[in-house]
Design brief:
Blueprint: H1 2-21, H2 27-38, H3 44-56, H4 65-78, H5 82-98, H6 102-116, H7 125-139, H8 146-160, H9 166-182, H10 186-202, H11 207-223, H12 227-244, H13 247-263, H14 267-283, H15 288-304, H16 308-325, H17 328-345, H18 348-404, H19 406-487, H20 492-519, H21 522-527, H22 529-541, E1 547-553, H23 561-582, E2 586-593, E3 598-605, H24 612-615, H25 620-631, E4 635-640, E5 646-653
Parallel strand pairs: 1-2
Antiparallel strand pairs: 2-3, 3-5, 4-5
Helix pairs in contact: 1-9, 1-11, 1-15, 1-17, 2-3, 3-4, 3-5, 4-5, 5-6, 5-7, 6-7, 6-18, 7-8, 7-9, 8-9, 9-10, 9-11, 10-11, 11-12, 12-13, 13-14, 14-15, 15-16, 15-17, 16-17, 17-18, 19-20, 19-25, 22-23, 23-25
């Protein structure tokens, strides 16, 4: 069963590989290309028609490929178009890749790239895309350059999107999807094929693109083991096939069906679909490579159904066709299949001979791939060397051009020098004026800082005098009056009046202390800014219909005392404005310290908002806030509109405490 499992994996590999090169294109456009070719034009338009139609493949009835390849190359060279010559060479490399002659394909693709290097490749996105696509198709079967393969297809897809050749873009999607499939990244492969499906839906009259997108999605889901989803996409594909009148797609549809039925264990139905695929391939003269896949599939299904005689017959046919076309890989697959069939029949000597052949072919193919890998790396090195030489030659040409422009540049340089001298003079004048403006601004800032500092010092002095002087005096009066009350005999009316006086005196003391606290909060001096603002917010919102939430981030370390006072005054003024004017139910205060020098203040509310342009500098509160922000070398941003609350954001500079 080891060989059986191996052959099943190989079958899926070969089956899905066919889906890349089978094209996507607009049927009407293919007919236009055929019409141009029938006119036998020998110009670049005729060369482009040949090259594009060949690239679009058998889906559009392109027969006698070898003859067309020669004709395309002849017309491209006749019109002296290096771009179309490179395109024709790449088509030839793709055709050779299909029959497994990868070494020759690499050589021809390298010739195409050397031809393209003689042109401005930045203006030839289409043929550059074809080059990278061809490169990916050559590398894909080798298995040693999986990341390089994906990179080539991705580059091809990127370039194709800059062209009007929709078929090219669609086939590049298929290449990228297959490269992900080889890397066993089925999720990426599925996403890429779904992008291809979206691309087909956006491109008008592209039923074939849509059909092939469905087919590719079915194939990748089958590889990923999701038979149910694969069946849905294959069903969508089969529904579109009759509208396309394409023998290639009829063959692919029957092959798909055979493979699905085989996976479900319905071997009799599967063999009928496989035989239909063979008949379609023979009648419509499809490529030997397509026939090989279906003959091998038929033999494998017969083997699973225990019809060993039929299985051997189809494996023999696979062997014969593969040997005739020079496909060593299919010769190896057929030999492996025959070994297992002979072993099951009890012909162990014959089975051993087939196993020996299969082993030799596997070694030969491995060595060939190693040789191809070495050749590819050598070609990469040579290409890099040539590109370096080209760059050096281009640099030499640029130097000569520069020398030729020296005389003109000298005259222009003299004029520029005079202009620059004048500009330098005016710039210096502007810089001097700017410096004067900066000095005036600094002077104003210093004056503002001095004024605010003086105000805070005066506030502090008055608060201290109120608290320590007047507060102490009033407290003494209260104590004396309280003592007198116990020693006096008063009427009930006079006692009531006396108590009223004591209550008024107590309220006066509390009001005086509140005023003194607002002028210079004791909590701010003792415990710092966060605690002072939290206490102030709690006091404002106590027994009110609104809530004030305070957040402090990075405020563990105290700030300079003067800075703390300024920030406290800013937030105090903002909160007072919100409480008085906004009608908000929630007010948020956030202070965030980023580092030793930067601090942000944010005050937001869900109130009725206002128009900042109308408010402007009309309120004393905003003027006071802006002057304090200016003191901190900060910036203020007010975002509000009527009915949507307000958000005030302040960014300022700070000084560390001490």
């Amino acid at each position: 069963m080891v060989f059986c499992k191996m052959k099943k994996r190989l079958l899926i590999f070969v089956f899905c590989f066919l889906h890349i090169a089978a094209g996507f294109a607009q049927g009407e456009y293919a007919d236009e290309l055929k019409a141009i070719i029938q006119q036998n034009k020998q110009d670049s338009a005729g060369a482009l028609a040949y090259n594009r139609l060949i690239f679009m493949g058998e889906d559009y009835g392109v027969l006698y490929a070898d003859t067309m390849l020669e004709k395309a190359l002849q017309v491209s060279r006749h019109c002296n178009s290096k771009v179309q010559t490179a395109f024709a060479l790449l088509n030839r490399a793709l055709a050779i890749t299909k029959i497994g002659k990868y070494d020759t394909a690499i050589y021809i693709a390298n010739q195409a790239r050397e031809t393209l290097n003689q042109t401005d490749t930045s203006k030839n996105s289409e043929v550059m895309s074809v080059y990278y696509f061809t490169r990916g198709m050559i590398l894909l079967p080798q298995g040693s350059f999986k990341e390089e393969t994906l990179s080539s297809f991705l580059k091809a897809l990127e370039l194709s999107k800059n062209t009007d050749f929709k078929y090219l873009t669609a086939v590049c999607y298929g290449g990228v999807g297959k490269a992900y499939d080889y890397l066993r990244q089925f999720e990426h492969s599925i996403n890429m094929y779904k992008e291809s499906l979206d691309f087909a839906g956006k491109t008008p009259v592209d039923t074939l693109i849509l059909a092939k997108a469905y087919n590719n999605l079915g194939a990748v889901y089958l590889n990923a083991g999701d038979k149910a989803t694969a069946a849905q996409y294959f069903n969508n594909f089969e529904q579109l096939v009759p509208r396309l009148k394409s023998p290639k797609l009829w063959w692919l549809s029957r092959s798909n069906k055979a493979h699905q039925l085989m996976e479900d264990g319905k071997y009799n139905d599967a063999i009928q679909s496989a035989l239909q695929a063979i008949e379609i391939a023979n009648v419509n003269r499809l490529s030997s490579f397509d026939k090989l896949a279906t003959y091998y599939l038929s033999g494998y299904i017969y083997y699973l159904n225990n019809n060993l005689k039929k299985a051997a017959a189809y494996m023999d046919s696979t062997y014969a066709i593969a040997a005739a076309t020079g496909s060593q890989e299919y010769v190896m697959y057929a030999a492996s299949g025959m070994a297992e069939i002979e072993g099951k029949l009890g012909n162990y000597r014959s089975a051993a001979e087939y196993l020996t052949l299969q082993s030799k072919l596997a070694d030969s193919i491995s060595n060939e791939k190693s040789k191809i890998s070495a050749n590819f790396l050598n070609i990469q090195y040579q290409t890099a060397q040539k590109e370096t030489q080209i760059k050096l030659q281009q640099a030499s040409i640029r130097q000569k051009n520069i020398f030729n422009y020296i005389l003109v540049a000298s005259a222009l340089g003299l004029g520029c020098m005079i202009f620059l001298l004048y500009r330098n003079y005016t710039q210096r004048q502007k810089l001097q004026q700017q410096r004067i403006t900066e000095l005036e601004t600094e002077k104003q800032l210093l004056a503002t800082q001095s004024l605010l500092k003086g105000q805070e010092e005066e506030r502090s002095r008055i608060a201290k005098d109120l608290h320590d002087g007047l507060g102490g005096l009033l407290s003494g009066v209260k104590l004396q009056l309280g003592a007198m009350k116990g020693n006096l005999i008063l009427t009930e009316e006079n006692g009531t009046a006396f108590n009223r006086v004591l209550n008024n005196l107590e309220e006066s003391i509390a009001e005086m202390r509140r005023v003194a606290h607002n002028m210079m909060p004791e909590t701010l001096l003792k415990f710092g800014l966060p605690q002072a603002l939290q206490d102030y917010s709690n006091g404002l919102s106590q027994q009110q219909d609104f809530t004030i939430r305070c957040e402090f981030i990075g405020m563990e370390k105290r700030l300079d005392s003067s800075t703390e006072v300024v920030i406290y005054r800013i937030v105090q003024e903002l909160l007072n404005n919100a409480v008085k004017h906004s009608g908000a139910t929630v007010i948020l205060v956030q202070i965030m310290r980023h580092d030793e020098e930067r601090l942000n203040i944010t005050v937001e509310d869900n109130g009725k908002g206002f128009d900042p342009n109308v408010a402007g500098e009309s309120t004393a509160g905003l003027r006071n806030i802006r002057s304090r922000v200016k003191y901190l070398n900060g910036k203020i941003d007010i975002q509000s509109e009527p009915g949507n609350g307000a958000s005030i954001y302040i960014e300022c500079e700070i000084k560390p405490y001490g």
